Amino acid sequence: MSNPAEKPEVVQLPAEPVSVPSASSRRAALQRVREARDKLTSTSGTRPAFDAELLRQYAQTRLSASYVVLLLVVATGVLFGLWMQPIPAAAWTCGMICIHAAMIRSCRRFLAEPSTPAATRAWRTRFVVLDLLYGLCWMAILIHPVLDMVTETLMMFLMLLVIAVSSMLAANLPIAAVAATAPVAVAMALSFVMTGSLDNYILATLALAAEGYFVLLAHRLHSSTFATLEARAEKDALIGELEQAKAISDEARHRAESANVAKSRFLAQMSHELRTPLNAILGFSEVMKSEIFGPHQVAVYKEYSADIHNSGVHLLNLINEILDLSRIEAGRYELNEEAVSLVGIVADCHHLMKLRASSRGITIHEVFEQAMPRLWADERAIRQVVLNLLSNSIKFTPQGGEIWLKAGWTASGGQYLSVRDSGSGIPEDEIPVVLASFGQGSNSIKSAEQGAGLGLPIAKNLIDLHGGTFTLKSKLRIGTEVIVTFPPERVMSALAPLSEDSPPLQPETSAVSDEKRRPRHKPIMSAGTGS
């Protein structure tokens, strides 16, 4: 017979680590994609929203400086009317006023209408055309042939004034600034060059240099405004992300709270459903174990009954621990506070666990300070803390080991409890694990007596409810020590004696003698019948 075909070995390759991009890298990638998309859809190379905002600032600047421009036009028209015929000067002034009025009306309409990408492009073209007409009108008056009698210095001054005002007003729209100032500067430079003198050549060069300077200045102002808009947009985006993250965290918190409430309701319902049959199991198993109705015919049944009873007790304790932890986590654990003795509670717990420790050959030492005042605390909670700590020490201490119970004063005036054993210890990296709910260390998993991992978390939460501290120190192969402290506010110290004298129980003798010497007046009418 032929041998069956061997199955090929399937070797699973190690999974490559998946690199999860950070939040900053994702934000940067989204920023680059957004910028590329905006540049493709924008006419100026910036975001469409920035185009609209820049035009809005341009219109607002024009409106705020409307009276200044109008005053400059009227003053120039009056001044040129003295050097040339009044009719051409008046015609030029009326034309400039019409262009200025059209500019102001367009700015107001733009600010009143909602901004869309198509409308923004149309308004941008309209503003550039109006600025171009504005610059051509200034060029017409500055190169008029009748003004040859005016000195070049005055013309240069007027040109610089016009270019400066136009550049500042149109700084948020650089192409409009160029359209308003370039015709004036170029025309003045050509006018100076056509005269043919060296001085006029220099003035022409200065005119072109001034044009370049003011265009550069307008571009820098536009860049600073654009940077401000970018910073504001990034701030708004960051605020939006924070609000979105806050909304997500609030929703997650609400879900966690709802899940916690559902968990608490489930545990409360299940505890009731489990305790009802569990009480019957404990009762009947105890009856069978005690052989109340007669001995068993088979002796093994008695051992089985004892095992059933012990298992039921363990399950009941586990249910009680889960319920206590759920109430503590839900904030519904109420402390029944009263004056208790810490030393007395520790001594009672030692007495309860002494038999269990003796069966394992473990010696428990007591180191208590005498004459300690009482604590204002919940006796049941403190007793549960001590029992949990002591049972853990007994569980993880080898045979022949030792346990030390200490109780005394803290440096701040409070009281402390210390439980130290000579067990195997807990690794330092596993201390947060054992303090978490249902957390178990490596030694607990290897131990034959495994628990649910609720003793230390319950003890820590109960101490936190009292306002105290819970410290766990452990070293491998040396032992573990748990120190529990209570704040000084819970120590009921003896009251100091009163500083003021108490009033006397009987009146002084002088007061009594004065009262006797005082004459007594008989009443005018007696209530009785006697005289």
UniProtKB/TrEMBL annotation:
Native organism taxonomy: Bacteria, Pseudomonadati, Pseudomonadota, Alphaproteobacteria, Hyphomicrobiales
Annotated transmembrane regions: 65-83, 89-107, 127-147, 153-170
Reaction catalysis annotation: ATP + protein L-histidine = ADP + protein N-phospho-L-histidine
Pfam entry (one): HATPase_c
Composition bias type Low complexity, residue spans: 14-27
Chain residue ranges for the region called Disordered: 1-27, 496-531
SUPFAM superfamilies: ATPase domain of HSP90 chaperone/DNA topoisomerase II/histidine kinase, Homodimeric domain of signal transducing histidine kinase
Name of the protein described by the UniProt record: histidine kinase
Superkingdom of this protein's organism: Bacteria
EC numbers, comma separated: 2.7.13.3
Gene3D superfamilies the record matches: 1.10.287.130, Histidine kinase-like ATPase, C-terminal domain (3.30.565.10)
Domain named Histidine kinase: residues: 269-490
UniProt GO MF annotations: phosphorelay sensor kinase activity
Keywords (A to Z) from UniProt: Kinase, Membrane, Phosphoprotein, Transferase, Transmembrane, Transmembrane helix, Two-component regulatory system
InterPro entries: HATPase_C_sf, HATPase_dom, His_kinase_dom, HisK_dim/P_dom, HisK_dim/P_sf, Sensor_HK_Regulatory, Sig_transdc_His_kin-like_C
